[in-house]
Specification:
The chain has one domain: Rossmann fold, CATH 3.40.50.620. 42% of the residues lie in helices and 22% in strands. Strand 1, helix 1 and strand 2 form a beta-alpha-beta unit. The structure holds 4'-phosphopantetheine.
């Protein structure tokens, strides 16, 4: 399939989705006709995510209800192969800090070797989310920290139930 420049992929593990992810997804949704949120699903890596793929998708569906050009799917292949399968020309990712840049530069080089026809576009995190990552939210939830302004309500509730002491 020839890559379509109107279709973008927003990939991630989303374990769970945060307001930082949603910021990137909503900005991508304004830039492209269709945004496919691609949720990593590697069930053989048991215990590697707190929430199952179904739970992570459920959180994303609830949080993106008002965006009408979003599709949510799982993938368990190379990201560029999934993008190809979907006919997407672009992978959209958020960048928070220099540490993200180094990792993403490496991913970019690897992806480019596999699929020179698929481009990656990086959106700078909005300053209020530049410190935000799922692992940090899980740590806060474990020790009773304040997470209500970092993740959607339903996600906060599930995090507190699953991790709260
Ligand atoms: O930081 P995240 O959310 O766990 O990132 C997940 C993802 C898929 C965006 C990242 O692992 C990536 O860019 N992978 C590209 C390499 C690839 O295709 N790996 C196989 C699927 S994980």
């Amino acid at each position: 399939m020839v890559p379509d420049n109107r279709i973008a992929i927003c990939p991630g593990t989303f374990d769970p989705v945060t307001f930082g992810h949603l910021d990137v997804i909503s900005r991508a949704s304004a830039m492209y006709d269709t945004v496919i949120v691609a949720v990593v699903n590697l069930p053989w890596r048991k215990g590697s995510t707190l929430f199952t793929a179904e739970e992570r998708i459920g959180f994303l569906r609830d949080a993106t209800q008002t965006m009408d050009n979003i599709e949510i799917e799982t993938f368990s292949s190379l990201l560029v192969d999934f993008a190809r399968e979907k006919g997407a020309m672009t992978i959209v990712k958020g960048l928070r800090a220099i540490s993200d840049f180094e990792y993403e530069l490496e991913m970019n080089q690897l992806n480019r070797r596999q699929a020179p026809d698929i481009e990656s576009v990086y959106l700078m995190a909005s300053p209020k989310y530049s410190f935000l990552r799922s692992s940090g939210v899980k740590e806060l939830a474990t020790f009773g920290g304040e997470i209500d302004d970092l993740v959607p309500n339903g996600v906060a509730k599930h995090l507190k139930e699953r991790l709260g002491r």
